Amino acid sequence: MATLEIRRIDPHDEQLLRAWWEIGRDATADRPVDAWTPWEVSRRALPIARTDGTLVLVSAFEGERSVGAGMVFLFRQDNTHLGEVAVYVAPGNRRRGIGRAVLAELERRARCAGRTVLIGSAYAPVDGESPASMFAADSGFPVGSAEETKVVDLRTAPVTWPALDAEVGAALGGYRVTVFDQRIPDDHLDDFCRLLSAFLGEVPIGDLDLRQASWTPERVRENEERAAAVGRVQVIAAAVAPDGHLCGFSDLRVNRADPRHASVGGTLVLPGHRGHRLGLGMKLATHRRLLELYPECAYVETGNAGVNAAMNAVNEQLGYRVVERCLDVQKRLG
Ligand SMILES: CC(C)(COP(=O)(O)OP(=O)(O)OC[C@H]1O[C@@H](n2cnc3c(N)ncnc32)[C@H](O)[C@@H]1OP(=O)(O)O)[C@@H](O)C(=O)NCCC(=O)NCCS
Prior knowledge:
Elements: E1 4-8, H1 14-27, H2 39-45, E2 53-62, E3 65-75, E4 82-88, H3 98-112, E5 117-124, H4 131-138, E6 143-153, H5 161-171, E7 176-181, H6 189-202, H7 217-230, E8 232-240, E9 246-255, E10 258-269, H8 278-293, E11 299-305, H9 309-318, E12 321-332
Parallel strand pairs: 4-5, 10-11
Antiparallel strand pairs: 1-2, 2-3, 3-4, 5-12, 6-11, 6-12, 7-8, 8-9, 9-10
The protein binds coenzyme A.
The site of coenzyme A has 21 residues, from strand 4, helix 3, strand 5 and helix 4.
């Protein structure tokens, strides 16, 4: 093997960034969902400086040829003990130690930044292992939380929605569901921050060492502005309690550059407000709005823990089916 060199790349260098992006695209092409972010979005999103963390991109070079890619996100506003890593090697270059070398460099950088835990996601077929799951196991990353990727077909699902609407309507009581495009109105912003900050404490995270996040109005607005700047459309449903405060949210994201599919961000109904079919009602609202905006959208992807019975029940009602496993893996840096 020619000498392998791992270098940090400048995301403003579009040629190097494109080579980095192509390796990720080729490495993930066999996933059952089209999960790799379109180039039109990545080329804008990856260079943007963020206040919530630092994104470090590295490429593995043999001479001037890029043969491997990786990234580590170093959280800044919360979870400052954590780095989130991803490693990509295209099929033609696998089992030559490139992934291991890229990961070693990402680990080195995470340690230098004072991080003590690394997390990542390895996707695998429903009934088997994958290069990613075996690479994670070999690299000292045991599974912290077994998640599943699910997909709903928007060409067939809507016929079931009227019956589900009736079920929601019968359970809502004094609650209601409303939907926003792209931006949370000012008068709901503080409530929305409370919901986002509560999220990690309410979803099953297994053994993952994820700590409570702290969302401020500035952080929400920065996220909204970044989404708009890179061409990512957000559809946000909110559940409104009888007292007028928000008690739940569910959001969807879709890239303007390729609106054939969308993905769910998160869904939460606060304890004390459950049992009114608000989760189902909010998801119906986001999926409907999505089809109004992008009738060509063919499917929505979501991911959540296999043990999350309440969310799984809602997703099953909506017609989501499991298409792959997503192993959230974790390593404690000694
Ligand atoms: C996971 C991935 C990065 C591995 O890249 P790679 O360059 O082939 O990995 P390496 O050659 O460094 O492999 C290191 C070790 O991982 C294990 N491993 C990697 N691929 C494996 C496979 N297909 N089967 C069994 N073990 C495997 C082996 O123990 C291997 O050591 P060995 O070759 O000496 O036996 C690559 O398969 C990939 O890009 N997959 C898709 C993207 C992805 O899911 N990334 C991981 C999550 S972020």
